[in-house]
Design brief:
554 residues; 5-stranded parallel β-sheet; binds 6-O-phosphono-beta-D-fructofuranose
Amino acid sequence: MTAVPLHDLPPRHTDAARDADRALREHAEQARHWHLADLFADDPQRFETLSLHAGGLLADFSKQRLTAETLEKLRALAGARGLETWIRCLFDGGEVNWTEGRPAMHWRLRQPPRPQGEPDPVQEQLAHMERIVKRILSGQWRGCEGDAITDVVNVGVGGSDLGPLMASVALHENHPREGRRPRVHFVSSMDGSQIAPLLDELNPATTLIVVSSKSFTTVDTLSNAATARYWLEQAFPKRNGAVLRCHFVGVSAKPERMSEWGIHEDNQLLFWDWVGGRYSLWSAIGLPIALTIGMDGFRELLAGANEMDRHFQDAPWEHNLPVLLGLVDVWNLNFLNITARAVLPYDGRLKHWPSYVEQLEMESNGKSVDRDGEVVDYHTCPVIWGEVGPNAQHAFYQLLHQGTQPVACEFIAAARHGRRNGNSAELQPLEEQHILTLANCLAQSRLLALGDRALAEDDGTPIHKRYRGNQPSTTLLLDELTPRHLGALVALYEHKVFVQAVLWGINPFDQWGVEMGKKIAKDMIQVLESGAGADGLDASTRALAAYVRETQKP
Ligand code: F6P
């Protein structure tokens, strides 16, 4: 297959695109007067028309403020914006990341092995990762004093932390039945507040540090890694070489930087520039996931994502989950002017899902310059935040139910709890807790949608106790929270982010807005330490720095 050259991609500002956009705007004028309670009353087939099952996931869009006609018009806009060609370009390895001149091939990491004999760097790294995982889980990997590993600390930040953290916690009940189970910890914050209490508790002789950084220059990660190294070298002063060899693994796209830092060549796992940081959990960045669920589980995760990749490429748009999810968000943001989205997993295992999605979406699509180098005059990504749903009910649902802002909500739950290993596996009350949680999920989305009309009628209810409703939501039900289903869910979100970026004409694979953050703090260290350079600062920053210096004086 040859890659589609970028200049062959259809222009965005065509008559067809303008017409599709205008048709949607006119349609939105009517939609502004719709109430979800009426939409349900008027169309008993609404759920059947506006829901979809793919990759072990059921998506229900019927509680969104839209109709089948809306989706048809949105598909017309996607067609006019060249989505079909863009999808082909993505999967042909075209340079969809045009500001960095490279493809985005995270999907390549979850493809099945190539026919035997063909060199396949992806499978080679997977095999290398498998060897490391097996040695750790079998107890063959030894610390410098000869002890088996009991604790693994992943040191990384952003994409080198959030994906592996989210998936390891989500799937922790799927650990292999045989073998050792190292505890897997995550350290990301540069201030040392996460690593310090861990080092207080861990035994250096049985601890392995995984330094995860695509660039291997991120100061957050390197400062935590340096602290961990200092801790180990202090513990074993006479075993300097062995400390690095036995207690550190590195994961990066920059092997030379890993070597320079001291990671032994055998302990280096590689991935590539064409995998974006926030799209990298499928690579060796997923090592903590593999250590949690075993290599078979990790391959299942990849298989689930691969299934979603194929669905995205092949399914007609009427039944294409990433396309529809992307279009619904565009409808809410650009046509209904709903600029906030709440991500609400009804499953504590998905407690890191909101942070993961925040990075995936806001770092990808928080952009304002389009492919033609023009500043856009429409919204791109909404503001996204979230929390485990039942806990959020006792925190910010008040605003969702009775505040002044429309918020698009996203409910995510597992229809069946699924496999549970460990001593709690047989506890019947846990099944009841699962049902209780699902009941809350369904009850909340219903009340948010229908408002008072979801309740028994009582005209005498005072206004402060009323529910306005019409708060739109999507519900995503995983058949079960297995590695395969989670793989499909993550790939679904990756692709829907791409769909939206195509409609908005922006590059979802760079992050120039945060690159500067990696540099600007350097000079400020001097200001804080010695005051040097303070004169050139603005009055606020200068005064804050002076206050810190003053307060730190002994
Ligand atoms: O915060 C910006 C960012 O570049 C993210 O995109 C990335 O996931 C994170 O930093 C970590 O980068 P690295 O893996 O290179 O340490």
